[in-house]
Design goal:
Layout (H helix, E strand, L loop, with lengths): L4 E2 L4 E10 L2 E7 L8 H13 L11 H12 L11 H16 L1
Antiparallel strand pairs: 1-2, 2-3
Helix pairs in contact: 1-2, 2-3
C-alpha cells in the first residue's frame, strides 16, 4: 500500500489505485489551481451554495475542495464520490494548503 500524499507540485497521490469508469488513477493533478481567477472562485462558490453549502464555510469543506478539483481537473463531480476517506481528506488538505499557506 502507498500512503496518500500531497506533493509540492499540487498532485494528490492516492493511497490505493482508484478506478472510475474503467480507468485506473493513482493520482490527480491540481496544478490548474494556479490558473483560477476571482470569477472562477465566484462560480465555484455559487455551485457550492447551490449544493446546500454555507458560503461562510466554503473554503473549509470537502465539498468545496471537490468542486475546485472538478474545475481544475475537468473530471466530473461523480469522479470524487467514491474516493477513499484518506484520499478525500488529502484532496481537501491540498486545496486548503494552496489557498491558505
Amino acid at each position: 500500500m502507498n500512503e496518500s500524499t500531497n506533493s509540492p507540485d499540487n498532485k494528490v497521490v492516492f493511497f490505493n489505485p482508484y478506478e472510475f469508469e474503467g480507468e485506473v488513477y493513482t493520482q490527480i493533478d491540481l496544478q490548474g489551481m494556479y490558473d483560477l481567477n476571482a470569477k472562477d472562485l465566484t462560480e465555484i462558490e455559487n455551485i457550492y451554495v447551490a449544493r446546500g453549502g454555507n458560503a461562510a464555510l466554503a473554503g473549509l469543506t470537502l465539498d468545496y475542495a471537490i468542486i475546485i478539483a472538478n474545475r481544475v481537473t475537468k473530471k466530473p463531480l461523480e469522479f470524487f464520490d467514491n474516493l477513499s476517506a484518506k484520499d478525500a481528506i488529502a484532496l481537501k488538505n491540498n486545496v486548503m494548503r494552496f489557498f491558505y499557506d
